[in-house]
Amino acid sequence: MGTNDRRTQNDRPPHARPPAVARPGPPPLPARTAFVTGASSGIGRALAVELCARGYDVFLAARRTAVLDELRTELAGVYPQRKVAFTSLDVTDHAAVVSALDDAAAQLGGLGIAFANAGADTEGDIGSGHFSSHRDVIAVNLIGAMATIDAATALFRTQGGGQIVGISSVAASAGLPGGAPYCASKAGLTTYLQALRAETWKSDITVTTIVPGYIDTPLNEAMGGRRPFLIDTRAGVRKIMDRVESGAHTAAVPRFRWALVAGLLRIAPDWMIARSTM
Predict the structure, then answer these.
(1) Which residues make Cβ contacts (< 8 Å) with residue 217, sequence separation at least 6?
(2) Burial class (CB within 10 angstroms; exposed 0-12, middle 13-18, buried 19+) of 174
(3) pLDDT tens digit string along 202-220?
(4) Among residues 79, 182, 192, 214, which one is catalytic?
(5) What is the dihedral of CA 15, 16, 18, 23, to 10 degrees?
(6) What's CA 167's distance to the chain center, in Å?
(7) Taking the mean position of all CA atoms in its chain, how far away is CA 166?
(8) Residue 257 to residue 66: CA distance in whole angstroms
(9) Is 55 left (phi over 0), alpha (psi -120 to 50) or beta?
(10) Neighbours of 118 (CB within 10 A)
(11) What is the DSSP letter of 90?
(12) Is residue 31 within 8 Å of 51, Cβ to Cβ?
């Protein structure tokens, strides 16, 4: 179209809608590096392996440093070109999380992605004498994730960008019987990430909420056969990383079945929720 054919906004027909304001794709990462909490088992451990396989240097954080040391040795043997560092970390200690993230950025030469992955779960209905363990789940899954996200956001604002990934759950969609603290913690995390996404919308910080269904990890293995659409950890983490690298804002994993389940749970009546198990 020639320059003489261009229309101004005032020339637009009155029935025409203004162009939609859409955020572009993910900004380029400042470094191909990643920080992972809860890296000693489950999704966190599998993420460490998958990240190295995809060419990332990683900084791993968890309370069990002996396990992290073994994992570093394992990764060094398979991916000798990758840098792997680790630290002991209680994610509920905000000051410690800030220090760990600063250390990760210093050792890895900048930080591209921060995964708020550390998680815990417990059993026991409300009012059945399990409040202490319920509080611990909230502390790790919600307070610990918030501490990680808050510290990562501050770091990324300073360094000029990065990606924050929070591992939520389909269980955030409803309060399932027997899983009150877990559901509440993941619902809180999902909302917290949504608020951060709004706050950073015009910045170079990408915020990704991962919403897994049942991925075979020690956190849910006690449920045995009560895990519909179960996939193994390696396959699940590959799907997570595909969505992370695409810059997705919110992504169910696996994608279509659990997106449907999450939508149905959000509108399900109480009597149907009461028949659910977790």
Answers:
(1) 41, 42, 43, 233
(2) buried
(3) 999 999 999 986 666 555 5
(4) 182
(5) 130
(6) 3
(7) 2
(8) 37
(9) left
(10) 27
(11) -
(12) no
Instruction: For the chain, report the end-to-end CA distance as a whole number of angstroms.
Output: 59
Helix and strand counts by DSSP (H, E) for the chain: 9, 7
Q: What is the DSSP string of 121-142?
A: -----TTSS-HHHHHHHHIIII
Asked if 182 is an active-site residue, the reply is: yes
Among residues 162, 183, 161, the alpha carbon closest in space to that of 172 is found at 183
Tens of pLDDT, residue by residue over 1-47, are 443 443 434 444 444 444 444 454 566 677 799 999 999 988 899 99
Per DSSP, 29 falls in state: P
Q: In this structure, are residues 142 and 180 in contact, taking their beta carbons and an 8 Å threshold? A: no
- Radius of gyration, alpha carbons of the chain: 21
The H or E element containing residue 211 is strand 205-212
CA–CA dist 123, 205 (Å, integer): 36
Mean pLDDT of the chain: 83
Q: Distance (Å, rounded) from C-alpha 251 to C-alpha 265?
A: 16
Tokens of 42: 């489950």
Q: Which has the closest alpha carbon to 166: 184, 182, 146?
A: 146
